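We now fix the convention by which a protein and its fold are recorded. The integers have meaning only within a learned vocabulary of local backbone shapes. A complete example follows; check for yourself that the lines match position by position.
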Amino acid sequence: MKKSVKDIDIKGKKVIMRVDFNVPLDKETNTKITDTTRVDAAMDTINYILSQGASLILMSHLGRPDGTPNPKYSLKPVYEYLKTKLPNNKVEFAPDCIGDTVKSMASSLNAGDVLLLENLRYHAEEEKNDPNFCKELASLADVYVNDAFGTAHRAHASTAGIVSAKTGMPAVAGFLMEKEIKYLGEAVANPERPFVAIIGGAKVSSKISVLENLITKVDTLIVVGGMAYTFFKAKGVSVGTSLCEDDYVATAQKIMDKAKELGKTLFLPIDNVVADKFDNEANRKTVSWNEIPDGWMGMDVGEKTIAELEGILKNAKTVIWNGPLGVFEMSNFSKGTFEVAKMIANSGAISIIGGGDSVSAVNKSGVADKMSHVSTGGGASLEFLEGIELPGIKVLEDK
């Protein structure tokens, strides 16, 4: 387990914290945040640090400015919102994230003051993990806190290099990061059983390592969404015009063989809602998994599959879900995804939701508050489930 900010003394210290303020802005003016969730989620750690008599420097990226200052990607709207969240604190906004002006602003901070740095990715050196850029960031503070799990799989200056750039600087997790490590780590290393993983989404190719790692750990692996059709093809049946990665048919077979060898259950849909084109208003019907007609494509799971999943999830003690069961953005093909969201919420199991589409589904279903943990990092949570040690976590101090 990694140390959190609660495990060290920060009174009178300058703390620099990596946050994930990569928020959506209104497309017309780029001046208003349209979803403040990521800023709100960081407030517990921010308030704790300030309550301990420390000053705080916040750093984040926003969008993809490609190493060049661009007002479209400025963190100024976040600064304006942050001031409303911290009405009793002095909150300032730096015109850059490095340089003499920033150093001067950082050095004049008093206990309880907050300084938000401008977008880290205005400098190409951030993503290159450039040593000099790391030193510039590290020179601003005494203590490093990472509360941005969503970027922990990137070996960037603000997530990894900053720690080695200043000898002896404590490096610990914020509360959001701590929660991610706890839930994802314990789920994989020491789960309550039966342990069920539902892995969906479009492509097997993007989740091979996750499937290969999880099949050795779970009791039941449920493969759904577009991925399932590559597995069907490996079983030798026609999938019509369904999404299918021919290059990964052998990989799908290997995973099924591994499940059999280990005595694990690998569950695939037993019926599918198919359509004659990729359109919400397409003609549709439900067919058995091995009876998809030529010219038709799988778009969702069928009622029999939903009933089987209910039985599996009712008995589960730990559930990980990453990826939808169908084209849930289209209302006529969203039932499987939304039904499973509700089943997991009502199962009583420890439930961990990861990946943008799954998170969106639990939010739209109104059951997010019934999940044990909704992960803030899509790519990071996937790599964590693959068993990869993430660079942004590796550099933090162990308890």
Remarks:
- The first strand starts at residue 14 and ends at 18.
- Residues 37-51 form the longest helix (15 residues).
- The CA atoms of residues 269 and 305 lie 5 Å apart.
